[in-house]
Amino acid sequence: MAKNIIFSRHAKQQMQLRGAQEDEVIWAIRTSVWNFAKRGKLTGKMRFDFADYSPINQQFYQYKTVEVVFVDETDEIIVITVKVYYHNS
Q1: How far apart are CA 46 and CA 56, in angstroms?
Q2: Full-prediction pTM beyond 0.85?
Q3: How many angstroms separate the CA atoms of 11 and 50, rounded?
Q4: How far apart are CA 69 and CA 5, in angstroms?
Q5: Residue 53, number of CB atoms within 10 A of its CB
Q6: Which end of the chain is more exposed for a tag (fewer CB within 10 A), N or C?
Q7: Does CATH number 3.30.2310 belong to domain 4-87?
Q8: DSSP the chain
Q9: What is the Cα–Cα distance from 37 to 21, expressed in whole angstroms?
Q10: Cβ-proximal residues to 65 (8 Å cutoff; 6+ apart), any chain
């Protein structure tokens, strides 16, 4: 059974500001290779087709990479923050 994914308030704010969708974050956690981050946290990232204008700088990009910083607890995964990188290659 998959663990529930809980979003911190900060993560929700960053997702909205940076243009990440909840389903993208969940997909990145569930399917990417996890790497160790600072202070016992983990990261996972996934590249998505985008083909749209970035909400950050209004430039057109083919792809976006969603990087998730989270903690893997016993019963749930807690999303700490979300970073989004827009690119064309």
Answers
A1: 19
A2: yes
A3: 21
A4: 12
A5: 13
A6: N
A7: yes
A8: -PPEEEE-HHHHHHHHHHT--HHHHHHHHHHSPPEE-GGG-EEEEEEEEEEEE-TTT--EEEEEEEEEEEEE-SSEEEEEEEEEEEE--
A9: 22
A10: 45, 46, 47, 48, 84, 85, 87
* pLDDT tens readout for residues 42-79: 999 999 999 999 999 999 999 999 999 999 999 999 99
Instruction: Return the percentage of the chain with pLDDT > 90, whole number.
Output: 98
Q: Which residue has the tokens 């389903």?
A: 23
Encoding tokens for residue 19? 């243009």
Which tokens in the block code for residue 61?
Answer: 């990009």
C-alpha span between 73 and 71 (Å, rounded): 6
